[in-house]
Amino acid sequence: MTALVVIWGFAAALTIEQGKQLLRIQKVYDNIVYPVGEAINELQSERFVSVSYLAWRTSALHTDLRVQRRKTDATAVLLTRLSEQARDETPAAMWDRLQDLIRQLDRLDVLRGQVDDKRLTRLDVIEEYSSVVETAHQVYDRLMISPDIDIIEQTKALILITRSREMVSQQSALVLGAQASGRMTQDERDAFSGMVGKRRLLYQLGTSQLDAGLLKQYGTLNSTPTYTSFLSLEDDVIARVRPGQPLPPEAIAWPTTAQALTRQLTETTGAAAGVTAARAAPLAQSVLWDIGIVGGLGLAAVLATAFISFRFARTVTGELSMLHRAAADLAGRRLPDLVRRLRRGEDVDVAAETPPMAQASGTVEIENVGRAFTSVQHTAIEAAVGQAELRKGVNKVFLNLARRSQSLLQRQLGMLDGLEKEITDPDLLERLFGVDHLTTRMRRHSEGLIILSGAVPGRGWRNPVRLYDVARAATEEVEDYLRVDVNMPHGYSLAGGSVTDVVHLLAELIENATVFSPPQTRVQVRGELVARGFAIEVEDRGLGIPSEELAHINARLADPPEFDLADSDRLGLFVVGLLARRHNIRVSLRTSPYGGTSAVLLLPQEIVVENDTREPTVERLAQPEAPPPALALTPPIGGGGAQDSLPRRVRQANLAPQLMEEQGDLFSSFQAGWRRAQEDS
C-alpha cells in the first residue's frame, strides 16, 4: 500500500508540476523571451550603424552610432532587471546562457572602442556582433519550459525562423559596406554566399514545422514584394558580383531591401511567438482537471488495496526479519570468524560452512532472495578459502626458494672460509672479506623470505649469547658497518632460541639507520637493563620521519598486518614486525634529539639472561718474526710501510665463539651435507 501511495503521490506531483510549468510560461515570456528579442533587435541595429560608420565615416553617422549604443545599453539594463523577476521560473540551462549574454553585453565597450579607432574591417565587425547575437539565440534554444509536445515543436520552429532573420540582418550590413566602397572583396562575397545558404536552410526548416495557423502568416510574408526583391538581391550578388569589380546599378537598393525584410520578419515572428505563448493557458486548465481525476482515482485505489496490504504485511515482515538476521550473522560473525580461522591455517569445509540462509516460505520472491543470499554466502566463503590457499602456495614458494638460496649461501660461506685461511695476500684477502660480507647480507635477505612465509630460519643456538655479541653480529650483517658504534653492557645474555631472530631484527633496523642518514654521521647502538626487560636503542642522525608516517609505522610494528604482496617496498618493516611478535618484543620509533630517528627494542625479561661479567685482561703478544697473518689486530713492528701497518678486517674475528660459523671438520661437513640434501630435496 505504501508503494501505491508513493506512486499516486508521484503521479499527482508530476501532473501538478506540469500545470505549474504551463502557467508560468507567460512569466518567462514577458521577463526573458521578449527582452532578449529586444536586445537582439538593438544589437542588429548597432551592427548595421557600425558598418555604416566604417563605410562612410561621417560625423552624422558617428552621432547615430552613439544614439544606437545608448539604446542597446538601456535594453541590456532592462533585460538584467526583468530577468531577476523570473529567475525561479527559468530553466537552469536557459538561465546560464542568459547570464553569458548579459556578460557579453557588459563587455561591448571593448568592441566599440575598436570600431571608433577603425581597427576592424567591416566583415570583422559583423562577425563580432554576430557572436553576441548567437549567444542570445542560444538562450532561446534552452526554452524548454512546456511539457506540451505541440508547443515545444512550434517554439523550436520559431527559433529557427528567428535565426534566419539574423542572417538577413547580417546580409543587410554586409551589402551596405559593399555599396559604400562600390565593390566586394573575396572574403565578403564568400561570407555572403554562406549567409544565403544558411538563411534559406533555417527559414525552410522553421516554416516546415509550423502548424497551419502560424504557417499562414509566413505564407503571406513570402508573397510580399519585399521578400521576392530580397530573393532577387541574393541571386544577383551570387551570380553577378565579382570580387574587386564594381557593383551592378541595382546594388544601391540592396541595403534598403534587406532592412525592410528584417523588419517584416521581426513583426511576423513576434506575433507568432505571442500566439504560441497564449496557447499554454487552456492547456493549464486541462491539466488541472487531470489533477482532480488522477487524485480521486488514486485515492480510491489506495483505499481498495489497504486491506490486502495489511493482511500480508505481518507474514512478509516475519520472513524478511529472519532473512535479515541470517545475513547480519553472516556478515558480522560467521564470515570474520572464518577468515580468522583461515589465517591461522585451519582447513575449512565450504559445504559445511554454507547452510541455507532462509527456510521454505510461502512467498516465491522471498524464497528467491534467500537462495540468492545463500549463493552469495557460498561464493564469499569459497573466495576466502581460495585466497587462503593461494597465500599458502605463495608462502611455500617463498620458503622453498629461500631454503634453496640459504643452502647455497651457506655453502658459499664455507668455501670463503677455506679461501680466507689459504690466502695470505692482504689486498686479495681484503677483497675476499668484502665478498664474504656481501654473502652474509644475502643470507639475511634470504632468511627474510623464510620469516615472511611463517617459517623459522635454520640457524640457531642452544646456549645463551651475550647481548654485546648479538649486537656485533647484527652490525656485521650491515653494508656500512664501519659507521656503527656499539655500546652494550657485558653482563647480560640472550636466550639461545631468540638469538637468530634478534640478530636479524637488529640488522634490519641498523641497516635502515645507515641507509637513511648522511654517510659522514655515526649510528649509535646502545643497551641497558630497564624495569620490564632489556632496552636496545638504534639511533641515526638523518632527516627523520614525518609524524604522521611515524605513527603509521609504529601502529604496524605494534600489530603487524598480513603480508601484502603489493607492498614489496616495505619488506624490512614486515620482517621486523613478525620477528617482534614472535618473541613478544616491543619495537617503536621516535624522533631523536638530533633530528633523526631512534628505534627502541624492549626485550622481555623471559629471554634476557644475566651472567657473571669478568674484567677483560690484556696479554702482551710476542712479535712474530714472519709477516703477520690476516688475523693480527696490531701492526707489525718495523720494516713495513704505512700501508702494511694498517689493521686488516678478519671475518668473524670480533664475534663470540657461539656466533661464529662452524669449522670444517669431518663430522660438521657430514652434517652440513646431510642438511643440504634434505633442503634441496
TrEMBL record:
<feature type="domain" description="Histidine kinase">
    <location>
        <begin position="502"/>
        <end position="607"/>
    </location>
</feature>
<keyword id="KW-0812">Transmembrane</keyword>
<feature type="domain" description="NIT">
    <location>
        <begin position="34"/>
        <end position="283"/>
    </location>
</feature>
<dbReference type="InterPro" id="IPR005467">
    <property type="entry name" value="His_kinase_dom"/>
</dbReference>
<feature type="region of interest" description="Disordered">
    <location>
        <begin position="619"/>
        <end position="646"/>
    </location>
</feature>
<dbReference type="InterPro" id="IPR010910">
    <property type="entry name" value="Nitrate/nitrite_sensing_bac"/>
</dbReference>
<dbReference type="Pfam" id="PF02518">
    <property type="entry name" value="HATPase_c"/>
</dbReference>
<dbReference type="GO" id="GO:0005886">
    <property type="term" value="C:plasma membrane"/>
</dbReference>
<dbReference type="InterPro" id="IPR036890">
    <property type="entry name" value="HATPase_C_sf"/>
</dbReference>
<dbReference type="InterPro" id="IPR003594">
    <property type="entry name" value="HATPase_dom"/>
</dbReference>
<dbReference type="InterPro" id="IPR013587">
    <property type="entry name" value="Nitrate/nitrite_sensing"/>
</dbReference>
<dbReference type="InterPro" id="IPR050428">
    <property type="entry name" value="TCS_sensor_his_kinase"/>
</dbReference>
<keyword id="KW-0472">Membrane</keyword>
<keyword id="KW-0597">Phosphoprotein</keyword>
<protein>
    <recommendedName>
        <fullName>histidine kinase</fullName>
        <ecNumber>2.7.13.3</ecNumber>
    </recommendedName>
</protein>
<keyword id="KW-0808">Transferase</keyword>
<dbReference type="Pfam" id="PF08376">
    <property type="entry name" value="NIT"/>
</dbReference>
<dbReference type="GO" id="GO:0000160">
    <property type="term" value="P:phosphorelay signal transduction system"/>
</dbReference>
<keyword id="KW-1133">Transmembrane helix</keyword>
<keyword id="KW-0418">Kinase</keyword>
<dbReference type="GO" id="GO:0004673">
    <property type="term" value="F:protein histidine kinase activity"/>
</dbReference>
